[in-house]
Amino acid sequence: MATENIERSRGKTEHHVDVSLWFALLFLLCFGLVMIYSASSYTAFADYGDQMYYLKRQAVAAGLGLVAMMFVSRIPYHFWERFSLFGVLASAVLICLVKTPLGVESHGARRWIKTGIPGFNLQPAEVAKIAVILFLAVMICKMGSGIKTWKGLIVMMVAPGVLFLMIWKITDNMSSALIVLAIAALMVFVASPDYKKFILVGFLGVAAAVGLVMLVKYTDVFDSFRATRIRVWLNPESDPDDKGFQTLQALYAIGSGGVRGKGLGQSMQKLSFLPESQNDMIFSIICEELGLLGAAAIMLMFTILIWRMMIIANNAPDLFGGLLVTGVISHIAVQAVLNVAVVTNTIPNTGISLPFISYGGSSVIFLLIEMGLVFSVAREIEYRGN
Q1: Residue 146, CA distances (Å) to 50, 85, 192 in order
Q2: Which of 234, 286, 323, 362 could serve as 126's disulfide partner, Cβ 3.0–4.6 Å?
Q3: Are 188 and 141 in contact (CB under 8 A)?
């Protein structure tokens, strides 16, 4: 009887559970809540009379996101194929609603819509990100070898390009628009066997960016809000009391933190000196309080998260599953890199949050839903005991 049980166990199929991925994700979520409280307690008490105002709202959003993630992770990922086109159309409609009475304005930007849930507004750009991931995963599988041609490449980028323009022009959110475009470009790049087109497009893009910066720096051809941001990026000290204020305060925070930091909760810049310290600029508070070592630890956690997702993508049961995970990797990696680049003044200042850590209900909920898709793909990776 014992021998029979051993023989049966050898053929037993088990679902793949990635403990390292779970650890990295939960660490980033919990660390994010700690840092949101640390970065926002002073301003939250000054503005709302409650030190935990931002922490409570983010904790509720994270809780809802975890529930949604668990729900999505239990559904076979192929179920979502049928909603790929609907997701893109729904995103477009939601973006348009920003300009209606349902739109909500905050900090001078109109990028959210009312949901009817107290304390929670929806940012359509976050819906567009996951919609693009799902849509392109389906389209690439359907197009097959057609992706090698210029025509196929252009067809692939039509829907992401339209959402890019809508997010940029309707919600005036260039950062989210660029992330949507970057997700699409990376997914198509990974799926395409011919890299020459991407090298050419990348070279032209870099050349255009350099040309634009040179024009802004040496001429007065452009005099827009974003041109001003480029000038301030090149020389933050040129406008230290206005456009360059946030960047300079972030750099002060990073520099004052040193290697070990001042200690958790000991930041000076969060005391109304650094705008959006709990949001886009939270990485500078991490550097100030926990130093270079703390910042390196966070980057290590993101590296582990992305590495484990890459393993899932490589071992996915089919192309569709691999592309879904690739899209999530692209989203998290691009957004994390851009946030750190903005905070360190490597690129011009623009509103980009740090995934799982920055304050933002819509962001954390939809990021966790995306992680639910990753875990759904991981569940379909089967191995047999020996």
Answers
A1: 57, 19, 10
A2: 362
A3: no
> Could you tell me which residues come within 8 angstroms of residue 44 by beta carbon, excluding any fewer than 6 positions away?
50, 51, 52, 53, 54, 55
Nearest to 292 by CA among 270, 262, 250, 333: 262
Give yes or no for a contact between 30 and 311, defined as CB atoms under 8 angstroms apart: no
What length is written for the chain?
386
- Cα–Cα–Cα angle for 302, 289, 284, rounded to 5 degrees: 60
Task: Report the predicted TM-score, pTM, of the whole model to 2 decimal places.
Answer: 0.90
Average pLDDT by consecutive 10-residue portion of the chain (386 residues)?
41 63 94 93 88 92 94 93 91 90 78 78 91 94 80 85 91 88 90 78 83 76 71 78 82 88 88 84 93 93 95 92 95 94 87 90 93 93 53
The DSSP call for residue 379 is H
Tell me, what amino acid is at 319? L
Q: Tell me, what's the pLDDT at 385?
A: 41
Residue 112, SS3 per DSSP? strand
- d(CA 289, CA 287) in angstroms, rounded, equals 6
d(CA 203, CA 185): 14
- Identify the bridge partners of residue 384 per DSSP, sorted by sequence position: 13
Residue corresponding to tokens 């097959």 = 144
Q: CB–CB of 338/160 below 8 Å?
A: no
- What is the residue extent of each domain of the chain? 25-74+235-381, 80-194
